[in-house]
């Protein structure tokens, strides 16, 4: 029986990263072996074990990590935006350290569906190629990530794949209705889903701009706004800041849920306006027309692959441009939904191909 260690930004109550974890675990069990032994490096091992029926260890315990690595057949790093130093240089060094440690004890490493960059520090630029050239396999979720790795000096073959969340299975209609009833989220249709986040203090004015646009949209469509936070509790605060500035009817999801449940709720919307990357992916896997507001190149990369354009950036969001793009998507929502359906199905197959390559690697290593 194969044993796989998973490392990423897991256990921090970020629905996007938790959805990545859920999708990877499900794909490993579907495409490799239902009985595959999975151990996750998590900031909250008990919750991770409960949510996903896996083993988990403290991501900050070196002794536990070394023990897991010695027992594993493979370290799968990813996906998500792990290899960047915008958040902090410590984060980048942590993940590179895991790859280096695995290499030293002869554990094969797959860097899986990574979103790479920005990498601005001299140390980061120096270490990334030195460490990643030891990986058995490298896949990234967009062309820009591949270009950056090549520019930094990574010589290993790099394949462009998609975010693992395109393979996330969704919960039943019954479960969604249970959540809607429990949280009193019923709204008059059409329901516009909204997912926001804080950015820098200078850029948070976009939340006020968004509040005004959402009121205009509500008046125009005579529906309701459903706020769907992804990073708990940070996005709750950002959502409330927008909500407090609005005059029209809104609802806010406040509880903690499995990422499959949160993703499923996006399917209850007729249109989604999202800042968080995975809010846009959640809309896409539900075939719900979407409008993206960019705060990071990864958002622009996703929109480009979906044949869409950004409605603006958090740093200089135009109310007029956002409003016009939302109305344009709404008025052509049938066409937008069909195009999204084709793209999502295509990306789902790419994600399956990526996990199948992991299966082949495991098989080759055991022969």
UniProtKB/TrEMBL annotation:
Polysaccharide pyruvyl transferase domain span: 14-297
Record keywords: Transferase
Pfam families, A to Z: PS_pyruv_trans
NCBIfam families: S_layer_CsaB
Organism: Acetohalobium arabaticum (strain ATCC 49924 / DSM 5501 / Z-7288)
The protein, known as: Polysaccharide pyruvyl transferase CsaB
An example Gene Ontology molecular-function term: transferase activity
Source superkingdom: Bacteria
